[in-house]
Specification:
By secondary structure, this protein is mainly α. It has a domain of about 40 residues. Helices cover about 50% and strands about 0% of the residues. It is built from 3 helices and no strands. α1 packs across α2 and α2 packs across α3. The longest helix is centred in the middle third of the chain and has 13 residues. It is globular. The model has no long low-confidence stretch (mean pLDDT about 85).
Length: about 70
């Protein structure tokens, strides 16, 4: 059994692709905090859009990991 956490997009706590919900579960924080951080990063430099797209493409959905 895996004793480490894996980053996966959430299928239950999603607004667009489950990226913020997955990151929040991985970091064990409220998804709203992650969404606000992404919003701020989008407004102040556009890096948030690229980060969101990269995680969307790279991270599997949590049901693909058997959760």
């Amino acid at each position: 059994m895996d004793n480490y956490k894996r980053l996966a997009r959430s299928t239950t706590d999603r607004r667009i692709a489950g990226v913020c919900g997955g990151i929040a579960r991985y970091l064990n924080i409220d998804p709203t905090v992650v969404r606000i951080i992404f919003l701020i990063s989008i407004l102040f430099g556009f890096i948030g859009v690229w980060a969101y797209l990269i995680v969307w493409i790279a991270a599997p959905e949590d049901n693909a990991l058997g959760r």
